[in-house]
Design a protein that fits this description.
By secondary structure, the protein is of the alpha/beta class. Helices cover 31% and strands 21% of the residues. The strands form five sheets. It has a six-stranded parallel beta sheet, with helices on both faces. It has a six-stranded mixed beta sheet with strand order 17-18-22-19-20-21, sandwiched between helices. A five-stranded parallel beta sheet has the order 4-3-2-6-7. β20, α13 and β21 form a beta-alpha-beta unit.
Length: 468
Amino acid sequence: MTLVPCGMTLVVGLGLSGRAICRHLARLQRPFMVADTRDAPPGLEAFRAAHPGVRVHCGALAELDMRQAREVVLSPGVDPRTPGLAEMAEERNLQTGEPLVVGEIALFRRAVRAPIAAITGSNAKSTVTTLLGDMAAEAGIKVAVGGNLGTPALDLLNESPTAELYVLELSSFQLETTPWLGAECAALLNMSEDHLDRHGDMPAYRAAKQRVFCGANRAVVNADDPHTWPAPAALPAARVARFTTQKPEGTDWGLVQRDGKTWLMQGETPWLAASELPVAGQHNQQNALAALAMGRALGIDAAAMRAVLRRFSGLAHRSEKVAYINGVTWVNDSKGTNVGATLAAVNGLGPTLRGKLIVLAGGVGKGADFAPLAAPLAAYARCVMLFGADAEPIARALDGQVATQRFAGLLEATQAAAALADPGDCVLLSPACASLDQFANYQARGEAFCDAIHSIARSAGKAGEAAP
């Protein structure tokens, strides 16, 4: 048994966030040591060079005696229920009164001096985070954007020390180890089954997400999804703004049909015609409404917010239009790593087509229920091309509702989709699964899909043809 020295901070995990935690502690000149459950974590030698003299424990956490540690700070990828940590769950830091085991965002909260806008949800949080950050910058606000997206939160403090607003995307992994956030505005965009292999069930997953509202001044929630609403005791109703795909009530945000157009509205006030958005689909209109609601709550200039929405063409791997080949639209939604994300893409794109969807799905399902996909795919899809580790559970969920085909991998599925698609159709990669069975991450999966599309375009002599 290795003893963590009395008064020393223990950092668990040497991933991207773990290294940011270490840099932050080094800047504070706080003594720390590091533990990682892997025998040889990637980047270990570079870490030792950057932090000479810092002790590193590799292997089981149960081999560490943490009882005298000043604090245990977890990287988001480390499950607090890991043997060796679970026993510390109820322990409290004698100096601060906070839990002994916390995450990176707890350290960020202590150090930050500017307001925080925090965005979480099962899907679309990167898009809304990017939109809100761009809106703030357009309005002349010194803004720093990061967290689960891009730059780790603790590195933002060092890179942007004079920021007037920090816009953070936060995952359930980050929130479950954050005792108190105190955001100026917090948003929970949607809830669908995801990460149940980590959280165990939906109530535990929702409880982690709901922590975004701890100490918040204002909140933005999805009126169509009660699971996103904070508990009444957490925030007065007057401080909660709602967005919906329906006609809004009161001062809520929503979509209204007027003069033959769909309008993004706050109550009776039109803000923007949906046709002015470069991105297609009702799910992207929802994202725009969420960003507008947050921006309004933060006092961001209205003209700046409209300007950003009029030019925002979306993020890579998120309902990204890649090509238009012989009348067929190709869309990369590799970030669709759960059922909710795929539902949003299918329901957002399906009604806009004169043809049908051909959907590529599969990978690591993380224990999700795929049954909710059956009805919308039956309505909008010609066929679902399945690949990866959990192709069989998806096939069972769709049996009798929509045609399916099975393939060894993404490349074969993409080639078959090209042969099947008719003019007016859309080939959509939205896997409803994580990628780690066949790819390093969802980005690599999306890039492989795009490479296959470009090969198909060259074969068709349409390499330069743009999607409409």
